[in-house]
Design a protein that fits this description.
Length: 412
């Protein structure tokens, strides 16, 4: 009996083991189906390229290699900021070598422009980060202020080049910097009022605003840009030829800025809606506009203006009197009597009477055996102005008049 019961117990144990082994693959498949699903969700949260750098949200646009626009904008903005910083350091280091007042007056607005350009490149990184309330406030506050700073510097430079081209004189550098800062302050007040009215008073989120409202808030910036364009165009009408190159580069930078603003405003207001990409391409559009404007100002205005300021003044070359291809130098055609005092002029005018009396006395007591008439005496010949050969060469071959201090050669 005991052996029969033991046999039944062993058979029941093997039957239960078989049922467990039969259900184990199903349980294993269920676990495997859950585990890969958990890993896939974690991998989707970190884009390709960010796992190597170790960046996650909200900085995924800085390293996402699938959405390559963020990496490209980041690289171009970093290169532009570095170039603007190096150019500013070069200007500060060579400031003592700029001795001409006309060139030195343009250094202040140029340094202020480079500061605004670096601000544009830095602000582009704010559009590569996922937005929140504080970041949206920074975007809306600094966008118009930085553009107003750059365009007011262009307007100040246009006023300076216009004065130089027409009158040959430049306003003081402090006046130009003060003008640029004063015009920028107006845009700062406009941006602050817009934020106070929409965010604090109406209670709207800082990240939710209409694109048309954003464009209207930048209307003052467009006025500054058009004013700078007009000033640069007037600078080309001056009579001073040496400043026309500065005016031409300033006009090119203003024209490129106008075309850029027309392009990004049209795409931001109408292009994104037409392509049904208003929520996706809004931030890339603004980031690309910032970087493009920074490089336009850097290439078409900052670098040529810095080269003009740092270029040494041409040294005046001495005329070569033995070069027959050059025109002979002309001496002053005005009378030497203008520089002679009145007392000395009366003395010089009375000298011919003394010479005549002296020569008449010599003729009366001289040798009268000569049949050819009286010969001028030595004192009279010595009082006649006889120019040297070098004096005639310097006067272009013509016989010059006697200088006002000439009183005759003394033979004894």
């Amino acid at each position: 009996m005991r052996s029969t019961e033991l046999t039944h117990t062993v058979e029941d144990l093997f039957t239960s083991l078989k049922s467990v082994m039969a259900g184990f693959p199903v349980l294993l498949l269920l676990l495997l189906s859950l585990v890969p699903g958990g890993f896939s969700e974690s991998e989707e949260q970190v884009p390709f390229g960010c796992s190597v750098v170790g960046l996650g949200r909200p900085y995924t646009a800085l390293c996402d290699l699938e959405a390559i626009w963020g990496v490209v904008v980041e690289a171009v903005a970093a290169g532009g900021a570095l170039a603007a910083l190096l150019l500013a350091l070069v200007l500060l280091g060579r400031l003592r070598s700029i001795t001409e007042a006309e060139k030195r007056s343009g250094v202040g607005p140029l340094l202020l422009l480079l500061l605004g350009v670096m601000g544009l490149f830095a602000l582009s990184f704010a559009y590569l980060v996922e937005r929140d309330e504080r970041l949206c406030v920074v975007r809306r506050a600094l966008w118009g202020v930085l553009f107003a700073l750059c365009f007011s510097c262009l307007l100040a430079q246009g006023w300076r080049v216009r004065r130089l081209a027409r009158q040959g004189r430049s306003p003081r550098g402090c006046a130009l910097v003060g003008l640029a800062l004063g015009l920028t302050l107006v845009q700062g007040i406009v941006a602050a009022e817009w934020l106070l009215l929409t965010v604090l008073r109406l209670g709207q989120p800082a990240c939710q605003f209409e694109p048309l409202d954003f464009a209207l808030a930048c209307s003052y910036v467009l006025v500054l840009l058009l004013a700078a364009l007009g000033a640069s165009a007037l600078a080309l009408c001056g009579k001073e030829q040496q400043w026309r190159c500065n005016g031409a580069w300033l006009l090119v930078s203003c024209l490129a800025s106008v075309l850029l603003w027309a392009a990004w405003l049209g795409f931001y207001l109408y292009g994104n809606k037409a392509l049904d990409q208003a929520s996706t391409w809004e931030e890339p559009t603004l980031a690309v506009a910032l970087v493009s404007q920074g490089w336009v100002l850097l290439l078409f205005h900052a670098i040529p203006e810095a080269h003009s300021c740092l270029r040494p003044a041409p040294q005046p070359s001495a005329p070569d009197y033995f070069d027959t291809s050059q025109a002979p130098p002309r001496m002053r055609e005005t009378s030497f009597d203008e520089d002679v005092p009145l007392s000395h002029r009366q003395f010089v005018e009375n000298q011919p009477f003394a010479f005549d009396e002296h020569s008449a006395g010599l003729r009366a007591g001289g040798n009268g055996s000569s049949g050819t008439g009286p010969r001028p005496s030595a004192p009279f010949r010595s009082n006649v102005y006889q120019p040297t050969e070098m004096t005639m060469i310097l006067n272009g071959g013509a016989v010059p008049s006697a200088p006002p201090t000439y009183t005759g050669r003394q033979l004894w």
